[in-house]
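=== RUN LOG ===
request id: a7f3
mode: sequence -> structure
chains: 1
length: 117
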Amino acid sequence: MSIENALASVAVTNLDVAAAWYAKLLGSAGSRPMAEVVEWKLPGGGGLQVYALAERAGQCSFTLVVRDIEDEIRKLDGMGVDTRQRTVSSEVKTVMVTDPDGNHVALAEPVGGSVIR
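=== RESULT ===
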């Protein structure tokens, strides 16, 4: 198998509500490749799909790699998102948050020369 990239996906109950929340988080509106999916292409080549599937909503998790975790925490705080769940290690700083459906979103900043791809 020769895997070239990855695309994360997250199930939600209300696609319009979720799309607005993720647009604030990601800083741009996603595209709609189909009626039940909103998609963001990320600068590193990967992507995130948010899709309507109520029976799986709240059961997903994924990680977004960021350059400046403190800047992202300020943005999340401004959105009214709880950012108290934080960890720091010699390789990564993280904050774990939840979207409106309860899906777990980790934001991670590599530190000390570590690389997350």
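=== NOTES ===
Strands lie at 7-12, 31-34, 37-41, 47-52, 61-65, 86-88, 92-98, 104-110.
The helical segments are 15-26, 69-78.
=== END ===
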